[in-house]
Specification:
This protein has a two-stranded parallel sheet. The two termini are about 25 Å apart. Helix content is about 50%, strand content about 10%. It has about 100 residues and is α+β, with helices and mostly antiparallel strands. It is elongated and about 50 Å long. It has one domain: Rossmann fold (3-Layer(aba) Sandwich), CATH 3.40.50. It contains four helices and two strands; from the N terminus they run H-E-H-H-E-H.
């Protein structure tokens, strides 16, 4: 996880906002969509590397605060200009669906 994201989460998910007394999950009932972009193909990361950093973020941060379900999208080979419009359209569709 990038250091800026980790620092943001540490500041945003402070006790009193994300966790209550006796580790009560204050963000229960909320959901999340995580979008990860990378240079390698997304399927390689998901199946060969088993998406370890996504699982860690979901289990150790989001679920700990009560955020569930957590859905994830992997966008691979972002340098390929030919597929850029395709994944931008996919993310726009996911945004419209969530709203």
């Amino acid at each position: 996880m990038p250091a800026l994201l980790k620092a943001f989460l540490e500041q945003a998910l402070r006790p009193g906002f994300a966790l209550g007394e006796k580790f009560r999950k204050l963000l229960r009932g909320r959901s999340a969509r995580l979008v990860v972009t990378m240079g390698m193909p997304g399927l390689v990361y998901r199946f060969y590397f088993r998406g370890h950093s996504m699982k860690s973020l979901e289990r150790n941060i989001l679920n700990f605060c009560g955020i569930a379900p957590v859905r994830s999208s992997f966008v691979g080979t972002i340098e390929a200009k030919a597929s850029r419009q395709k994944w931008l359209a996919k993310m726009a569709a996911l945004g419209r669906k969530a709203a």
